[in-house]
Amino acid sequence: MGIFSKEEARKILEKAMSFSTADACVINLSGSDSGNIRYARNTVSTSGSQSNQSMAVNASFGKKSGTATIDEFDDASLEKVVRRAEELAKLSPENPEFMEPLGPQSYDESKTYVEATANITPEYRAEVANSSISPAVANDVTAAGFLDGGAGFSAMMNSNGLFAYNKSTNVEFTVTMRTNDGTGSGWVTRDYNDITKFDAAEASKVAIDKAVMSREAKAIEPGKYTVILEPSAGLGLLQGLGRSIDARSADEGRSFMSKEGGTKLGEKIVDERVNLWSDPLNEEVPAATWDGEGQPLKKTTWIENGVVKNLAYGRYWAKQKGVDPVPFPSNFIMGGGDASLEDLIKSTKKGILVTRLWYIRSVDPQTLLYTGLTRDGTFYIENGKIKYPVKNFRFNESPIIMLNNLETLGKQVRVDGSLIPYMKIRDFTFTSLSDAV
Amino acid sequence: MKRRNFVQMAGMGAGALMVPSMLLGNSIPTEALLEPGMDTLVKKQLADVALNTAKSLGATYADARIGRYLNQYVFTREEKVQNVVNTESFGIGVRVIANGTWGFASTNDVTDSGIKKATQEAVAIAKANSKFQKEPVVLAPVDSYGEVSWKTPLKKDFKDVPVSEKVDLLLTANAAAMNNGASYVNSALFMVNEQKYFASTEGSYIDQDVHRIWPTFGVTAIGDGKFKTRQAMSAPMGMGYEYLDGLESEKLEGPAGLKLYRNSYDIIEDATTAAKQAKEMLTAKSVDAGKYDLVLEPNHLGLTIHESVGHPTELDRVLGYEANYAGTSFATIDKWKSGDFKYGSDIVNIVADKVQQGSLGAVGWDDEGVKTKQWDIIRDGVLVNYQAIRDQVKMIDQNESHGCCYAQSWNDVQFQRMPNISLEAGKEPYSISEMIKDVEKGIYIAGRGSYSIDQQRYNFQFGGTVFYEIKDGKIVGMLNDVAYQSNTQEFWNSCAKICDQSDYRLFGSFFDGKGQPSQVSAVSHGSATTRFNDINVINTGRNV
Q1: Which of A88, A284, A436, B123 sees the fewest Cβ atoms within 10 Å?
Q2: B chain contacts of residue A52, beta-carbon cutoff 8 Å
Q3: Rounded distance, CA B185 to CA B202, Å?
Q4: Counting Cβ atoms within 10 Å, is residue B421 exposed (0-12), middle (13-18) or buried (19+)?
Q5: Pairing relationship of beta strands A43-61 and A64-70 according to DSSP bridges
Q6: d(CA B118, CA B54)
Q7: How is residue A306 annotated by DSSP?
Q8: Residue A364 touches partner B, C-beta closer than 8 Å
Q9: Is B458 in contact with A54 (Cβ distance < 8 A)?
Q10: What angle, rounded to 10 degrees, do the helices at B40-56 and B112-129 form?
Q11: What is the pTM (predicted TM-score) of this model?
C-alpha cells in the first residue's frame, strides 16, 4: 500500500528530521495507489496498477541547497537520504533566490478523501468498461474509453516546525463513441473525488447519443458564430487565462497580464459578469489546503466582475516586490448562472453547440490567442433547436476576446477538477473547416 | 490538460515548464551518474525469473524489461543557474500473454521475490481481462537473437563532462544574448541515457545503451509594450555531448543572416543571432493574409511531417486504439489497400527509419525484441505502408513487425510509437538560395512554432520561429503574425521542390505524447528545405 496515515507520515518525517544537521531542512513524503483500464474497438486493450511512495529531502546551508530522494523508510535509509542531501547542498552554488522555510502554519481540513474511491477494485474497473461496451454494441457504435483512479497522500515537515498532511482520492473517466459507419462521434468526461457520484452507464449514454446525433455532419461556412460552449470546451480556453496569472512574468513584461510600465492588476479585462476564483474547500471540487511550499491555500479571487483582483506571487517574488505572497491555486472555479443547456439552446436563434475543443495551442502569448478544433459533437442551432450536426471547425480565439463577448452564463459543471459553467458567446471565430469525424 | 497539469504549470518557473514530470526519476548526485549499474549477467538471471514465473503460471509469452534511466537537466536564466537535476530510475516491467490476453505489471523491487510478485500480477491481470477479449493476441514471428547489445554511437558521454562546463556554456550563451539586446533569456540542457535490458521467452537477451541530448533556449526582447521570443535553432539529437562542439563544417548559411545547424550546434552563435532577431521581430511587418508559396526550413518542416504524416500512419490510430485520446486517422486501410492513394505529389518520398545515425529514434532493437530497420511509408507520393508492431501486422496482411514498439520507462507498458519519419531530399543539386530565387510571392519559415491538427489529421495550422517575406526571388524583410492552414493531402500534393542532400537536417522532439496513461517518446524527422505552392496564410495579430 502506498498510503500512509497522518500519524505514520509524521513519525517517519520526524525520524528523518532527527538526522538533519543542516541550517534548514524541508522533507516531503508522498505516495499513491492507483489503477486503470483502457478499452478500444469494444474490447479491453490494456490495464495496470501502480503503487509508489517517495521521500524528498531538501537540505540547506546558508543559500546552498541540495535535494535527494528515496523510496525506503527504515532508519538507515532515512539517515542516508538526509546525508546525501546535505552533501549535495555543500557542493552546490548559492541560489540567490533561496527562501527560508516557513514556520508552523495552520490549515483547513481538506475534503479531498473518500474511502469508496480508494477501494476501487480491478473488477469494478472491468465493469465500468462493460458498462460502455455493451450499450455501444447495442447501438451500432464502437467504444474507446479510459478509467483511472485511486488514492494518494502528501506530507511535509521542515526544520522550522511546519507539518502538513493531505490525503486525497480521484477518479477520471473519458469515453469516445464512434458510429460504426464512421460518420459520427461523441465523447464524455467525468471526474470526481467521490466515486459514488459516478455512473458509467449514464456517462456512456451521453457519448453514444452524441455519436448517433452527429452522424453525417453538414459543412457550413467558417466565420464568426454565436457558440454554446459546454464546460469541457470552455475549460480548454480558460486554462490559457489561468496560466497568465503569474505576477513575475507580468512584472517582467512577458505575459498577457503585462502592460507598458506595469501590469493589468486592478484593470477590467473581460465582461463584468465574469468571476474567477479558487477555493480548496468547495464541495464539488475539493483540493488540498496547502501548497508545495507549505503555504495555506484559501479561497482567492482572481477576477471579480471582470477586474483582475489578484496575480500569483511566489514567495521570492513577493519579497522582491514588498507584497504578501499569493499562492498559485489548486483548483479553478468560474461563477455561473441558472440556465441549463436546454435553456441556452432554446434562447439561441442561430448558433453552434460545441462539445469539446481539441489540440489547443498558443499562437500569440501577448494576446492569449489560441488555435484548436471542435471535436466529437458539433451541432447547428436554429430558432432554439438543434437542427443538424455540422463538420468540425478550427478556431483562432483568445479567452479575453471570448469573455468580452459573453452572452449568457449557464450552470456550472465539474471538469478536470475545475468548476466551469456552460457559456454562450457571440462572434466566436472559426477560421476553417475540418473533415475529421 | 488535466487539472494537476494546469495547477503545476501555473505554479512553475519557465525552465521547469519544459520538463514533464514523467521523465523525472529519483534525484541523485552527479557522480552517481557514473556508477556502472547492474551487471548484464545478473540482469539475465533476474529476467529469467520473470520469464520462468510467467510460463509456470500458464503464460504463452512473456518479456521482461530491466531499465535504468539516467537523466541530467541544467536550467539557467540570464546570469543565474536555476537548477541542476540528476535523476535515476531503476526497475523492471513484465509483460505477458495469458488466455490470449495482454497483462503488464512493474516494480522497482528488482529481486527474485519482487519480480515473481510483479509477474504474478501481470498474469492475473491478463486472465481477469480475458473475459472481455474478443480475439486472442497473435504475435508476428521474430528471430531469437541470443545475447546481443547496441549503443548509440557517441564521442562524448554527457556523464563524463563536468557540470561546471555545461553551466559555463549556457551562461556564456545567455551573456551573448543579453549583450546583443535580449531582455531575458532562459536556457536548458536536457541529457538522457536509457540503459535497457530486454529478454523474452523467444530467446533474445538484448542490452542497449541509448543517449540523447537537447540544448535549447528562449530569448525574449521587450519594447513599446510588446514582447517577442525567439527559440533556439537546435534539434534534439541521438548523440553525445559532441553535438555542442559547434563544428564549422556542419553549419549552413540561411537567408537573411540566419545560421542553421546540421549535426553540430553552436549555441553561443545561435543565442547571439536570436537576440538580434527577437529585437527585429518587435517591429516586423504584420503579414497580409492570403496565398503564398511557402519555403519551409527542416527544423520547421519536421513538426509538420510529424503531425501530418507521422501520426496518421500509426497503425494503432488507424485501427482505433487511440480513438479516445489522440484520435484516429484519415489514412484508412481502404486507402492504403487501393495502392494509388496520392498522399503527396510525385516527389514526396517518406521513409520510416529506426536506424538513422544521430536520430532520436535510433536503436538496435525495439522494446519487444524486434531488430530495427528502414521502410517506405510514401513512395512517389503514394501511401505504401504504415508503422506497426508484432500484434498488429497481421491486420495489414504482413508477417514481420516494423520494430517500433516503445515504452517511456520500465514501469510503463510498451506500445506502438512513431519511428523517425523523414522526407527524402531532392535528387538534383538544388540549394536554399536557388529555391528562394524561384519564388515570386512567398514566405520562408524557419524553426518550430505553434502547431495544431485535428483528430484524424486533415486540417492543420502551423506557426514558426522566424518568417521572411519573399518577393520576386528575394527576401525583402521579416514578417510577424504568420500561421498557415491546410489539409494534409492538399498540402503534400502542393509539394513542388525539395533541396538536395547537402541541406538535409534533422528536426526532433523529446516529448511526443500518446496513449492512456500518456507516455512520451523521442523522435526525429529529417528533410531538406522544401517548397509548397499556394498555401493559405492567415494573420494571427489581434487587439485585446
Answers
A1: A284
A2: 108
A3: 51
A4: buried
A5: antiparallel
A6: 10
A7: T
A8: yes
A9: no
A10: 40
A11: 0.94
DSSP state of B529: -
CA A323/CA A212 separation, integer angstroms: 55
Whether this model's ipTM surpasses 0.85 comes out as yes
For B307-349, what is each residue's pLDDT tens digit?
Answer: 999 999 999 999 999 999 999 999 999 999 999 999 999 999 9
Residue of A nearest to B225 (CA): A260
Q: DSSP string covering B51-70, please?
A: HHHHHHTT-SEEEEEEEEEE
Closest CB to B129 among A126, A172, A435: A126
Q: Cis check for the bond before A329: say yes or no (omega within 30 of 0).
A: no
Can you tell me the distance from the alpha carbon of B221 to that of B282, in angstroms, rounded to the nearest whole number? 8
Helices (H), A154-265: 200-213, 231-242, 247-251
Q: Please tell me which residue of chain A has the smallest CA distance to B513.
A: A359
Nine cell digits for residue A140: 451500432
Determine the pLDDT at residue B8: 31
Cell of B221: 526582447
Going by DSSP bridges, is the β-strand pair A185-192/A163-179 parallel, antiparallel, or unpaired?
antiparallel
Q: Do A130 and B132 touch (CB under 8 A)?
A: yes
Segment 192-231 of chain A within 8 Å of chain B by CB = none
* CA angle at B333 for the pair A137 and B421, rounded to the nearest 5°: 120
Sorted by sequence, the CB contacts under 8 Å of residue A199 that are 6+ apart come out as none
The answer to whether the beta carbons of residues A352 and A228 sit under 8 Å apart is yes
* Burial class (CB within 10 angstroms; exposed 0-12, middle 13-18, buried 19+) of B83: middle
Q: Hey, which bits of A307-382 come out as E strands?
A: 307-308, 333-334, 350-364, 369-382
What span, in angstroms and rounded, lies between the C-alpha atoms of B222 and B380?
Answer: 47
Contact B454 A373 (CB under 8 A): yes
Instruction: Specify the range with the lowest mean pLDDT, choosing from A33-42, A385-394, B195-204, B528-537.
Output: A33-42
Paired residues of B95 in beta bridges: B63, B104
d(CA A170, CA A165): 17
Could you say which of B10, B325, B544 has the minimum Cβ distance to residue A401?
B544
Grid cell 538496435 — which residue? B364
A73-to-A419, B38, B110 alpha-carbon distances in Å: 38, 23, 17
| Chosen from B332, B455, B535 to mutate, greatest number of chain A CBs within 10 A | B455
- Contacts A369 to B, Cβ<8 Å: 540, 542
Count CB-CB contacts under 10 A for residue B394. Answer: 13
pLDDT digits (tens, 9 = 90+) for B379-409: 999 999 999 999 999 999 999 999 999 999 9
Which of A69, A312, A435 has its CB closest to that of B10? Answer: A312
Q: What is the pLDDT of residues A155-177, one digit of tens each?
A: 999 999 999 999 999 999 999 99
B4 pLDDT band, cuts 50/70/90, is very low
Please report which confidence band the pLDDT of residue B19 belongs to, taking 50, 70 and 90 as the band edges: very low
Q: Read off the pLDDT of residues B212-222 as tens digits, 9 standing for 90 and up.
A: 999 999 999 99
Name which of A71, A256, A359 is nearest B108 (Cβ-Cβ). A71
Phi-psi region of A305 (alpha: psi -120 to 50; beta: other; left: phi over 0): left
Q: Name every residue whose Cβ is closer than 8 Å to that of residue B124 and which is 6 or more positions away in sequence.
A: B103
* 3 state DSSP class of B489: helix
Distance separating alpha carbons of residues A221 and A390, to the nearest angstrom: 10
Half-sphere exposure (Cβ direction) of B531: Cα atoms closer than 13 Å:
25
Kind and range of the H or E run holding B114: helix B112-129
Evaluate whether A353 touches A414 at the Cβ level (below 8 Å).
no
